[in-house]
Write a structure and sequence with these properties.
Blueprint lengths: L1 H21 L12 E4 L4 E5 L8 E11 L4 H7 L1 H13 L3 H5 L1 H23 L4 E11 L1
Antiparallel strand pairs: 1-3, 2-3, 3-4
Helix pairs in contact: 3-5
């Protein structure tokens, strides 16, 4: 009975995963062709450490998800501006926010909003669909 229950749960999860993949389509019915731009090298900066007198640092690797591979060239052109903005956002955060899981999520969202705001100012479009931290190390 337990094996049957586990098998049914597995089948339901697989079914949900497959059905959600069909929802990632453009309005005209064609599948969306997402692309990712990764910032190289890693972004490393100091953050505010009010609790102790030591300087803390955070190191991230991030990727911007865009709706079309055509947008990669635009993101690449503006990469120095976007990198500088992310360094500024990270440097303004306090130690507690940098070290907490919810703080990491808030920082990622703030970086995403900043990137889209800058892209809107520079290109007239909010090109970023999502922002992923693929590495997040603090000390």
């Amino acid at each position: 009975m337990r094996k049957l229950t586990n098998m049914l749960v597995l089948i339901m999860l697989l079914g949900c995963g497959l059905s959600s993949s069909f929802h990632a389509q453009a309005e005209d019915g064609a599948p969306k062709d997402y692309a990712y731009f990764g910032f190289e090298p890693d972004i490393i900066t100091n953050y505010i450490s009010k609790q102790s007198k030591k300087i803390g640092y955070v190191r991230i690797t991030m990727e911007i998800m865009v709706a079309s591979p055509d947008h990669i060239a635009i993101i690449e052109h503006h990469a120095p501006l976007l990198r500088a903005a992310v360094v500024e956002v990270l440097g303004e955060q306090d130690e507690l926010k940098v070290k907490s899981p919810t703080g990491k999520s808030e920082i990622r969202e703030l970086c995403f909003e900043t990137i889209n705001r800058l892209l809107k100012e520079e290109t007239g479009q909010e090109l970023a669909v999502s922002l992923l931290f693929t590495k997040y190390i603090y000390h």
